[in-house]
Design brief:
elongated; Monooxygenase; 2 strands; two-stranded antiparallel sheet; 4 helices; mainly alpha
C-alpha cells in the first residue's frame, strides 16, 4: 500500500514536470514571435512520441499515462505550430532550411 502511494506520488510529480516543461517555451515563442531556436525535427519527434504514449496508455488501460500525455501532446503541438507560424512554414527559419 505505501509503495503504491509512493509510486503514485512519483508518477504525479513526473507528469506535472513533463506537462509544465513546455509552458516557458510557448511563452517565449509568443512573446518574441521568433522560432528560429526551436528545432522542427525535435518537436516533430516529440509530438510523435506523445501520440505513441497515448496509444500505449489506452492499450494498457492506464488513464493517468494517457491523460498526461494528451496534455503534453497538446503543448508540444502548440510549439510545433508556433514554429511553423513564426518561421514562415515547416522547416524554415529566416528563410533558411533547418540543418
Amino acid at each position: 500500500m505505501a509503495q503504491s502511494l509512493i509510486a503514485d506520488i512519483i508518477g504525479t510529480g513526473a507528469a506535472l514536470c513533463s506537462m509544465t516543461s513546455f509552458i516557458p517555451q510557448i511563452a517565449k515563442l509568443r512573446r518574441d514571435r521568433d522560432a528560429s531556436s526551436v528545432s522542427l525535427k525535435m518537436y516533430a519527434v516529440t509530438v510523435t512520441g506523445f501520440s505513441l504514449w497515448i496509444a500505449y496508455g489506452l492499450m494498457i488501460g492506464s488513464w493517468p499515462v494517457a491523460a498526461s500525455n494528451v496534455v503534453c501532446l497538446a503543448l508540444s503541438a502548440t510549439i510545433l505550430l508556433l514554429k511553423w507560424r513564426y518561421s514562415g512554414g515547416p522547416g524554415l527559419a529566416s528563410g533558411q532550411p533547418e540543418p
